Amino acid sequence: MDLHETPTMNGWKQPNRMRSLLFVPGDSERKIAKATSVGADALILDLEDSVASNAKSVARKTAADLLSLEDRPTSIWVRVNSLDTKDAMHDLVAIVPHKPDGIVLPKATPREVEVLANYLTALEAAAGLDTTTTPILAVGGETASSLFDFGNFGGLQRLLAITWGAEDFANSLSSSKNRDCHGEFLDPFKLARSLCLAGSRAAGVAAIETVDPNFRDLTQFESSARAAGNLGFDGMLAIHPDQVPVINRVFDKSKVDVGWATKVVDLFNANPNAGALSLDGKMIDIVHLKAARKILDSQEG
Question: What is the mean pLDDT of the chain?
Fold first, then answer.
C-alpha cells in the first residue's frame, strides 16, 4: 500500500491512499485474518458496535496483538467506543501504546476530537512515543444534532478525515430506512452526506463515504460507490471483503482521468497567460487546471 504522505490544510499528513477502509470485528481473529488479504488500504478494527459488551476486553487484546506485529499486513486503524462511554478510555489505554495507524472516533463532535487529541498526546507520552503519532478519523452525522457540527472541524489537531454514519443517523431520526428501492439515499441522508463532504473540504481533510450494507449485489454497490466518487469523496468505508476491490477500482484515478489532467496542465503551460482555453471541443479555465493538478498530485509517489 502506498503510504507516501501529503500535507493537509490543517497541517496533518494525509496518506495518498485512503480509498478503502474495511471494518472488521475486533474480537474475531478469523475475520481479521481474512480481511488482511483483500487489498484494503486500511483495516478498521472495531471495538464498538460489532463487539458485544462481554467481548470488549477480548477485542482490545486481539487488536493490540495485531498492532504489535513487526510487519503489519496493512494500515491498521481502531474504532474505539464513543467518548461518553466508560469503554473509550479502556480502549485507548490498551491500543495507543501499540501505535495504531489511526483512531476512528464514533459520534464525534469537534469538541470530542479536541478531547481525544489531548488523550492521545498524554497516552503517547506515557508510552514513550512521539506525541504526534496517531491521527483521527471523525465519524460525524450519526445524530440529528451532529449535522450542525460539520462546518466546525477546521483547524483541529490530528484530524485526518471525516466520514458519516447513515445507519445511526436513521436511528436518530426514527427513520425505518435510509435508501429508496433503487439504493439511492433519501433526502435527509443526502443532506448529511453533502454536509460531510463540504465540512471535510472546509477543514482541509479527506472525505470518506459511509458504509453501504449491500454486499451481495455488487453491481448496485458499485453504483453507490461511483456516485460518492463523482461527488468528490476520497474513499469509502466497507463492511465486507467483497466490497474492497470495487471501492479500490472506483476511487482509483483512471488512466483517462490522468490523461485528461496531463493535457490540461500541458495546455496551460504552453499558454501561461491564458485564463480560458479550448480542449477537445470544450472550454476549460483555471478551475479545470486546479482539478487537473489535484489529480496529478494524487498520483505522485
Answer: 90
- Contact, 26 vs 62, CB < 8 A? yes
Give the model's confidence band at 300: pLDDT under 50 very low, under 70 low, under 90 confident, else very high: low
By CB neighbour count within 10 A (0-12 exposed, 13-18 middle, 19+ buried), where does 271 fall? exposed
Tell me the whole-structure pTM to 2 decimals. 0.85
d(CA 260, CA 288): 10
Cell (9 digits) for 258: 490522468
- Which residues have C-beta within 8 Å of that of residue 240, sequence separation ≥ 6? 215
Q: How far apart are CA 240 and CA 213, in angstroms?
A: 8
Helix (H, G, I), strand (E, B) or coil at 258: helix
The whole-angstrom separation of Cα 262 and Cα 228 is 24
Q: With respect to CATH, is domain 5-252 assigned 3.60.20.10?
A: no
pLDDT, position 292: 87
Residue 134's nearest CA partner among 142, 125, 143 is 125
Domain ranges for the chain: 5-252, 258-298
- When pLDDT is averaged across residues 146-158 and rounded to a whole number, the result is 95
